Amino acid sequence: MTKNILTSLFLLLSLTTTIFAQLQAIKSVQTKTYNPSTNLVIWPNEFNPEKSKWYVYNEIEINAKPEIVLDILIDAKKWHTYYKGLESPVQFYDSNATTLRNGLVFKMHTMGLHLEPVMKEFVPNERMAWEVRRKNLKAYHAWVIVPTATGCRLITPESQNGFLTFLQRVFQPNKLMKLHDIWLRSIKEQAEKQP
Known about the structure:
The chain is of the alpha+beta class. Helix content is 31%, strand content 31%. The chain has helices spanning 2-25, 66-74, 163-171, 175-193, and strands at residues 28-31, 54-62, 91-92, 106-110, 113-115, 118-123, 127-134, 137-148, 151-161. β7 (127-134) and β8 form a beta hairpin. The longest helix has 24 residues, at 2-25. It starts with a helix and ends with a helix. Mean pLDDT is 89; it is low at 5-24.
C-alpha cells in the first residue's frame, strides 16, 4: 500500500511539474501599469496612457514570422472562430475589404458592447491601431509586432477614457486584460500551427 501511495504521489508530482512547465513556456505579460521607457506605440495625445483613465498592456512571444502573425491579425472576419472575446463575427463597412487596413471602419461585439472601431494606423508587419468613439467610451487599441530571433513578440496595449471606463475599473478590473491575454494566446496557437 505504501508503494502505491508513493507511486501515486510521484505521478501526481510529475504531472503537476509538466503542466507547470508548459504554462511557463508560454511567455506572456499582463499589466495595468504604463512604462513610458518601453512604450512602442504612437499614442494620440488624448489616449496618452499617462493621462488616460484606463490602460492595459499584454504581450506574448510567438514562434512564427511577423508576416504570419500579421496575416492572422488582419483577418478580422475570422477572429470569432478562435477568440472567445467576440460575441459575433466582425463586419466591415466596406464590402470590398477582405482584411483590416488603414481607414477601414468595422463592427465588433465584445464585452457586451457593440463597437465601431476605425483603423487609425497600419504599418505592415510592424503595427496597427484602431480607435473607438462612443458617447460613454473612447478607446485606442494598438498592436505592435517586434521581430525576435525565434519569431516575434506581439504586444497589444489599450488606453481608454469615458464613463464605461470607470464602471470597468470598479466592476470588471481584470476582464479586458484577461481577454487580451486569451486573444494573444489564440493568435500564438494559430501562428505556430502554420508552416
